[in-house]
Amino acid sequence: MWRAEEPLTICAKVLRDPMNPYACGQKLTAVGLRPPGIWNLDITMSPQAPLPEDPLAVLRERLRDLYLYAGEPSSRTLAKQTGAMSHSTAHGVIRCVSLPRWGNLELVVEALKGDVTEFKALWIAAHNARSQRETTVHPEDAQEPVLDPSHEQEELYRPVGGSPAEGHSGAVWSVAFHPNGHILASGGGDGTVRLWDTMTGKPWREPLLGHTGAVVAVAFHPDGNLVASGGSDKTVRLWNIDRPHPARELHGHTGTVWSVTFHPNGHILASGGIDGTVRLWDTTTGTPLRESLIDHDGAGWALAFNVDGRLLANGGDDGMVRLWSATSGQPVREPLVGHSGAVVTVAFHPDGHLLASGGDDETVRLWDPVTGCATGDPFIGHIGPVRSVAFHPGADLMASAGDDGLVRLWHLDSGKPAGRPLDGHTGPVRAIAFHPHGQLLATAGADRKVRLWKSAQPPDYEALFRRIDYLHARLRRLTS
């Protein structure tokens, strides 16, 4: 234990605040006072004292320093400050018994006014050490994994009562929720864009007709007044949802348009095609904003903007994911390499700290868009190509759909399955989308049906609204 007559020097460069007494080189001297319980140490620390060899222990120690200096806020207070997690998650991050997900740790460090860069380096070291341990197999451990029956039987989403939405006469390739959640758009092999009332499951209005081939991509404008579609007729069309005819017809692709997505500000529409190009369009005039982005060996299958619209992710036939600057149209770093087959779906986490990709190699992968590094091991479970991925808007949950006819739910923290797969479709599942509040999940597939699934858990609107407020505040900081 400490003795009052001996100074204690703590070297823990964890805060941006220059007044932090725990910054490197400053001394904290205990004079006649017993340190708080969290500092109940059996050794005296000094700049010369070796740090624990375990990187996770180093991370835990630094986090404990930061937490103490911040006044030891309660888990509920800390969760509220992050605006994006439950108090139990915040408590788990602070304890750091096991390696937390980086996104959660980042939010906690920001809430405690810590140095995110410092903690990122510590987290990477702990993550690499864990990966090395997991890849070292000991003979006594070489046995079949034991499945937790509780996870296998858990039901997170249930089919909404009544029959699935039927109307398409061909495979349904894409679905997208209106920003208010009351309307769902679907694009099908019959060349139609259909709008559905999510409350009743009935058509919201007559189909939107105009494409002369399959509609394989749909997306709503951020204000909800327009819906974009792309198809095998090589065109992109913009529809006013209150009118039956397209507002604009955009030409430029020389092959099927596989993906469309709106910039968060609504002024830009991106489209990707089998011709290997990504094109950016002015949504007001319908004119191209610049020369097409061409950097894939084969089709440019998948597109997604991040939350602030600065990055555009693109997956292609060459198995790579590329990140482009939406402003300059230039690549922002080397491609993300990991998939062994075409990347046909990409999605950004709602707060932008993760990027998911899925493809023909039957895996889902998570990436840090800032560093370009993979985060954790691939999510493995689908038998056949993964066709669509989507993040839950307010929980650490991700969904994926594939040619095996299943929709799988995953815990982001552990990478393990979350509950039972959803198995209502009778053929490959082509598309999935979460409702803006997360209470509904839409799926569509080759069986020509659109299905709605309802969360088995009651909505936590308070947590969701905290997350929305946090994301809005973060977006304002990034764009100011």
The CATH superfamily label of the largest domain reads YVTN repeat-like/Quinoprotein amine dehydrogenase
Residue share in helix: 10-25%
Name of the top-level CATH class of the largest domain: Mainly Beta
Low-confidence stretches: 1-52, 135-152
What share of the residues does DSSP label as strand, in percent?
25-35%
Q: What count of domains describes the coordinates?
A: 2
User: What is the mean pLDDT?
Assistant: 80
CATH architecture of the largest domain: 7 Propeller
Rg, Å, rounded? 25 Å
Total strands: the figure is: 30
Query: Structural class per helix/strand content?
Result: alpha+beta
User: Main beta sheet: strand number and arrangement?
Assistant: 5 strands, antiparallel
| Termini gap | 49 Å
Please tell me what the overall shape is: globular
CATH fold annotation of the largest domain: Methylamine Dehydrogenase, Chain H
How many distinct helices?
A: 7
Quickly describe the structure.
By secondary structure, this protein is an alpha+beta fold. The protein is built from 7 helices and 30 strands.
Protein model, in words:
With 480 residues, the chain is of the alpha+beta class. The chain folds into two domains: 7-134, no CATH class; 154-457, Methylamine Dehydrogenase, Chain H (7 Propeller), CATH 2.130.10. Helix content is 18%, strand content 31%. It is built from seven helices and 30 strands. Strands 3, 4, 28, 29 and 30 form a five-stranded antiparallel sheet that branches. Strands 5-6-7-8 form a four-stranded antiparallel sheet, with no helix packed on it. Strands 9-10-11-12 form a four-stranded antiparallel sheet, with no helix packed on it. Strand 17 (300-305) and strand 18 (311-316) form a beta hairpin. Helix 4 (102-111) runs antiparallel to helix 5 (116-134). Residues 1-52 and 135-152 have low confidence and may be disordered.
